[in-house]
Design a protein that fits this description.
- By secondary structure, this protein is mostly helical.
- It has three helices and no strands.
- It is rod-shaped.
């Protein structure tokens, strides 16, 4: 009877050993997959960090935006002055009406191009 118990225990032990080997193989495969995933995540975060760094290096600062706004305001003032001058000239002469009309058209195109809708 002892021999049967030993045989039975030996079979159970072999099954446990076989299961342990299979389990360890699966763990090893999971480790490999996990390491690959970790590498992908690390590369992804590295790429995002590079993108953020590039954006920070090339984005406009508050000072840039203010300077552009000031330039836009300056252009608007100059266009208004030119239009006023053209209106004064138009009031004083009929001789150059075609030239003045063409100048107004060009100013309107410039205003449209830079996003101004100042009218007269």
């Amino acid at each position: 009877m002892k021999n049967q118990k030993d045989n039975h225990l030996d079979r159970i032990e072999k099954k446990i050993d076989a299961m342990d080997v299979k389990f360890n193989k699966k763990l090893d495969k999971m480790d490999v997959k996990f390491n690959k995933l970790a590498e992908l995540v690390e590369r992804g975060f590295g790429a995002v960090a590079d993108d953020i760094s590039h954006i920070k290096e090339n984005m406009a600062t508050k000072e840039h935006v203010i300077a552009l706004g000031m330039q836009g305001s300056s252009i608007e003032r100059e266009l208004r002055d030119v239009k006023r001058t053209l209106f004064r000239i138009a009031d004083k002469t009929d001789k150059h009406d075609g030239d003045i009309a063409e100048a107004f058209k060009r100013i309107a195109m410039i205003e449209k191009h830079i996003g101004l809708h100042t009218g007269k």
